[in-house]
Amino acid sequence: MPEVCPKCGDTHFVQDPDTLDTWFSSALWPFSTLGWPEKTEDLDYFYPTDVLVTGYDIIFFWVIRMIFSGYEQMKEKPFHTVLFHGLVRDAQGRKMSKSLGNGIDPLEIIEKYGADALRLTLITGNAPGNDMRFYYERVEASRNFANKVWNASRFIMMNMDKADEQGAALAVSDMPEGLEPVDRWILSKLNNLTKEATDNMEHYELGIAVQKVYDFIWDEFCDWYIEMVKPRLYNSDDAASRKAALWTLKNVLVGALKLLHPYMPFLTEEIFCTVQSEEDTIMVSSWPVYREAWNFPKEEKDIETIKEAVRGIRNVRTQMNVPPSRKAKVYVVSGDGDIRGTFAEGKLFFASLAYASEVEIREDKQGIEDDAVSVVIAGATLYIPFAELVDIAQETERLKKEEKRLQGELARVNGMLNNEKFISKAPESKIAEEKEKLEKYTQMMEQVKQRLEQLAK
């Protein structure tokens, strides 16, 4: 209390009795906004609410006051769950404040990058209660992802338009006849994503859920599936295969947009309303659910085998500085009939992705040049006969590096499986997984050693 008024010199002071901490008025928010103290329809319907989302810095200022005010005035808690998120800090990790002048105007970010990009950035990689640093580069990356989704959608709609009456009949409904293994693979991947992302969201793991959706759209759908079906879309001879590809593209896009919508609402709404006509708006459309009919574990395993082969071929070509424009014949050699069947079914898109002029699938290596470059995957070896582009010493060095890597993997797996503590405490599924890895690496090591012996000759 001051003793003397600096203005008039008076010594008689009375504090205004009609004042209250501002957080106490904020504590009335859960019910005062619904018409309290009147018994309104809104108050009856919306109180208590389900989830409060807030920063951890105002737990004792606001959250606790709302709780005891709710019990006092309404005789019931105001919400069932409180989700505490972290604070957004600047790039140096400092809290944004007026005194530091390090605050960021969200409207400026939205003007430059879009509201969806900002929204995605703030959710991606954000774990409950953990602070995050704000980088413009991350917003730019989110904007690039939005462009990726937009361009993929335009590509799909362009091909649907070209399909004329076929495209118009592609309703989001039951699966058509003639789906190829690669179609079932992407449907199965979307199916699993739906189950996992929904479970993550129900447990408030928003950052984990959106990262899975992000990875699926960018990697599996755009970088792999769309590239895999391009040969079918451009091949007008097989109308049934083309229609199956378009149906799959549309269904997977619609499902992915629904999973992405909570994080990027504007982009997904615009595309959704353009690509389909069965539902008026994505905001009230049905949420995707797991379907047993879309569960294809065999196709998932088969396509992952082909993807591993493509990555191996691309890595080898990159190491030898072979341009994508230079195509070469690819031999797929495997004693496993199932693996040979997998490559036979996917020969059309495998040839395109592996920059192959021709793909020949055989049971043994007989007739293939000894100086052919090899790519070893689980269960098969791929040979590329362009020895004129290959330095034999360089190929030997590459295989020795692979041999050294496999030795490390085998040592690690054997160490775990020979560890009594690991065997006694680890779940059976983990032990089975490590045994499967041991078998895989052992087989790959044998193939690498055989290839080194051949080159040594």
What would your notes on this structure say?
This protein has 18 helices and eight strands. Strands 6-5-8-7 form a four-stranded mixed sheet, with helices on both faces. Strands 1-2 form a two-stranded parallel ribbon. Strands 3-4 form a two-stranded parallel sheet. By secondary structure, the protein is of the alpha/beta class. The chain has helices at 22-26, 29-32, 41-46, 59-74, 106-113, 115-123, 136-162, 165-168, 181-202, 206-233, 239-260, 265-275, 297-319, 337-345, 347-353, 392-417, 420-425, 428-456, and strands at residues 49-55, 79-85, 88-89, 132-133, 328-333, 356-362, 373-377, 380-384.
The geometry reads as elongated
Helix content: 55-70%
H and E string: HHHEHEEHHEHHHHHHHEHHEEEHHH
Largest sheet: 4 strands, mixed
SSE-based structural type: alpha/beta
Spatial gap, N to C terminus: 98 Å
Q: What is the mean predicted local confidence, pLDDT?
A: 88
Widest sheet: strand ordering: 6-5-8-7
Strand content of the residues, in percent? 5-15%
The low-pLDDT segments are 165-169
Number of helices: 18
How are the SSEs ordered, and which strands pair?
Elements: H1 22-26, H2 29-32, H3 41-46, E1 49-55, H4 59-74, E2 79-85, E3 88-89, H5 106-113, H6 115-123, E4 132-133, H7 136-162, H8 165-168, H9 181-202, H10 206-233, H11 239-260, H12 265-275, H13 297-319, E5 328-333, H14 337-345, H15 347-353, E6 356-362, E7 373-377, E8 380-384, H16 392-417, H17 420-425, H18 428-456
Parallel strand pairs: 1-2, 3-4, 5-6
Antiparallel strand pairs: 5-8, 7-8
Helix pairs in contact: 5-6, 6-7, 7-10, 7-11, 9-10, 9-11, 9-13, 10-11, 10-15, 11-12, 16-18
